[in-house]
Amino acid sequence: MFIQGPAGPIEAMLEQPIDNGAAVAILCHPHPMYGGSMNDAVLGLVGEALAEVGVNRLQFNFRGVGESQGRFDQGRGEVDDLLAVIDWAQAQGAGAIWLAGYSFGAHIVSQALPRAPQPSRLLLVAPPTAAMEMNSEAPPCPLDVFAGDGDEFVDHDALNCWPQARTHLIPGADHFFSGTAESLLAAIRRAIN
Description:
alpha/beta
């Protein structure tokens, strides 16, 4: 399916039709310049955990990825893509909006918060605090952060910029959760149940 975005159609995938007032989680993928797309395996784990608690998921490709129109815009246009997807979901009758992002996707979620309608829940996986500027403004909703204790892209001290966040460190995990995917999935399940 496609959602109209500021740079043209945005390729998207909705787990099931949006019921009026139902919770919808919008998932943001890793860096487009390094192969990130809505089909990312780590986002798949997030989606699996969400499905178990009855939260519908909406995944999409940022501009220039897959069949989404446009070109990579250093994170600026990608924030606009996310805002367009949120607007679309709300226009379809979504109730609670959850925002989830992995790596670059977590960066985009944090940058979008000042302009986004108030989300009900935030899930940030491996936010790249050592490589990208994150919005440290306190979000107006519950925030869970998941990161590997061996992730070179995450400055663990910088995670304290969100004092109200519940931080879940995955022992032995790197940025890609190589060999630790089940531990990440278990942590997400515990956080949202």
